[in-house]
């Protein structure tokens, strides 16, 4: 694989007529395709990627103990758990993040303050600490009050955990069948604690069953709406279908489907997906398949770091073109393994070979992607990764479409399935508010 990676760089150099030599961080022009420019990062980022397999399964940053901010003259300092010391809070940030009703709407929580009317040389004329916070008088005449908790949280790493709604991640193999995550329908529907438990399990494991669901489309739809509104696509919103190919997609047939994620042809793939088998008559088969994409990614990184890098760097296009008058593609290609640019965390698996279109590599080196993809396919198709389960009326499965791949075995007879999609941001929003509360989430918004 190393010679193939070198080939990617050499091929692109030839296309630019750039002499050979060590790959430079600045060798590619700004307009070079992202998937090509990023090949150089395969070498530059090996240190960062080395910890991905461990990082993806680790618990998120634990909440730090809040330390009371201090006032030194006209300077306000907050504790930073990055440098393990108190750091000065910039005046412009303080003024911009005043929480009074003149600066932030009390109901919508939107800014009312015009940030760009704040004098660039804004200064504090007085800062007085009391038992709950700090009173500040500003050189522009405004007065602010900052609660201790707000200031204490300003420089903590845990803010990213709250903003992204991170949760501990348990990676799994097919042995998850011995103890899969389950909640009861009544608990999820009738209490916020039950709803929080359900969403927490989805965040941790990537899927969760909801048992005791009435075997009707109405009850299933209401269950999904406990999280948020149901996403509408070119196939419609909440779906209730049989294998009649009505929507011009192989999901609407009775053939076997390999493990895949849905809606890779959208710029923003669906966050959650749900299936509820309402009936299966005059036939057999149709077992459901779940594969933990994060588990497979961690193992691929450990076994073949260069294949992992290729799947993390090379953009792949997708499309949905089966219905007349429709050809949906994302605004750009995306890699199979998409990482958070801020911390390198694996954030999303986008894998659907059926919907795959072009690969952003020159033809003379595109074979390297196929080699890496073949290794990935071999992993996610191996028995130790495949969790097979037979859905039954009354049991809904909801899974994270950014992490867990799904498929099914072929079947005979007539099956009726209902379910739907929920947007990723709506899912994470509900989880965050249930876990940290509205105020806890809002406190993490202003800081970075």
From TrEMBL:
One biological-process term from Gene Ontology?
carnitine biosynthetic process
Which species is the source of this protein? Answer: Mytilinidion resinicola
Domain Gamma-butyrobetaine hydroxylase-like N-terminal, residue spans: 89-151
Cofactor names? Fe(2+); L-ascorbate
Q: What does this protein do?
A: Converts trimethyllysine (TML) into hydroxytrimethyllysine (HTML).
Q: Name one GO cellular component term.
A: mitochondrion
CDD domains for the chain: CAS_like
Per its record, how is this protein called by name? Trimethyllysine dioxygenase
E.C. no = 1.14.11.8
Which InterPro entries does the UniProt record give? AlphaKG_dependent_hydroxylases (IPR050411), GBBH-like_N (IPR010376), GBBH-like_N_sf (IPR038492), TauD-like_sf (IPR042098), TauD/TfdA-like (IPR003819), Trimethyllysine_dOase (IPR012776)
Output the Gene Ontology terms for molecular function.
Answer: iron ion binding; trimethyllysine dioxygenase activity
- Coiled-coil residues: none
Catalyses: N(6),N(6),N(6)-trimethyl-L-lysine + 2-oxoglutarate + O2 = (3S)-3-hydroxy-N(6),N(6),N(6)-trimethyl-L-lysine + succinate + CO2
Q: Which family does it belong to?
A: Belongs to the gamma-BBH/TMLD family.
Swiss-Prot/TrEMBL keywords: Carnitine biosynthesis, Dioxygenase, Iron, Metal-binding, Oxidoreductase
One Pfam family name is: TauD
Pathway stated in the Swiss-Prot or TrEMBL entry? Amine and polyamine biosynthesis; carnitine biosynthesis
Q: Domain named TauD/TfdA-like: which ranges?
A: 183-420
